[in-house]
Amino acid sequence: MGPIQERKHVHVTCAIIEKDDLVLAAQRSASMSLPLKWEFPGGKIDPDESCEECLQREIMEELGITVTISSALPSHTHCYTSFTVTLYPFICTIDKGEIVLHEHAAITWLAPEKLCELDWAEADLPVIETYLKDFVNPLSSR
Ligand SMILES: Nc1nc2c([nH]c(=O)n2[C@H]2C[C@H](O)[C@@H](COP(=O)(O)OP(=O)(O)OP(=O)(O)O)O2)c(=O)[nH]1
C-alpha cells in the first residue's frame, strides 16, 4: 500500500452578485464536478493570491466582468464524499462588462427568497442561509 493520502481540501472564493434586488446564480456545466448543480461563480484560490484577487480572476474567466466587493460573509467548510471545500463568499455588484458565459451551463437572476428553489451544490446551503438571515433580512430576527 502507498502512503496515506490526505483528503483533498480546496479553498474557493465565490461571488454573491446583486443587481436591482436580484442575485445571480450560475449552473455548473454537465462536464464539471458537481454537474448541473447551482453555485455562486468563483473558484479555487491559487497560492500567493488573496481572496479578492482570486475572485476577480475567476469572475473574469467565467463571466467576463469585474466586480466591486461590498462585504464578506463568514467562510463555510463542507465535506463532500470525495473532498472538502471551504467557501469564502463575497457580496458584490457588477463593476464593468457584460456577462458572457465561458464555463457555466446557465445563469439566472433571482429574488433572494427564491434562491432556495434551485438545486444548489450542498456547500452553498449554509452560505445562502447566512446571506438571507444577516444581509437580506437583518432586522427580522431581532
Ligand atoms: N465556484 C464555486 N465552487 C463551488 C461552490 N460550491 C461548491 O461546492 N463549489 C465547489 C465546486 C468545485 O469542486 C470547487 C470549485 O472549483 P473550481 O470551480 O475552481 O474548479 P472546477 O469546477 O474545475 O473543480 P474541479 O472539477 O477541479 O473540482 O468548489 C460555489 O458556490 N462556487
Automatic annotation (TrEMBL):
The record's listing under PROSITE patterns reads: NUDIX (PS51462), NUDIX_BOX (PS00893)
Question: What does the record give as the reaction this protein catalyses?
Answer: 8-oxo-GTP + H2O = 8-oxo-GMP + diphosphate + H(+); 8-oxo-dGTP + H2O = 8-oxo-dGMP + diphosphate + H(+)
Spell out the InterPro entries in the cross-references: MutT-like, Nudix_hydrolase, NUDIX_hydrolase-like_dom_sf, NUDIX_hydrolase_CS, NUDIX_hydrolase_dom
- Name the Gene3D superfamilies on file: Nucleoside Triphosphate Pyrophosphohydrolase
Give the record's keywords alphabetically.
DNA damage, DNA repair, DNA replication, Hydrolase, Magnesium, Metal-binding, Mutator protein
Per UniProt, residues of the Nudix hydrolase domain are 7-132
The residue range of the signal peptide is none
- Does the keyword Hydrolase belong to this entry? yes
Upper classification of the organism: Bacteria, Pseudomonadati, Thermodesulfobacteriota, Desulfuromonadia, Geobacterales
Q: What is this protein called?
A: 8-oxo-dGTP diphosphatase
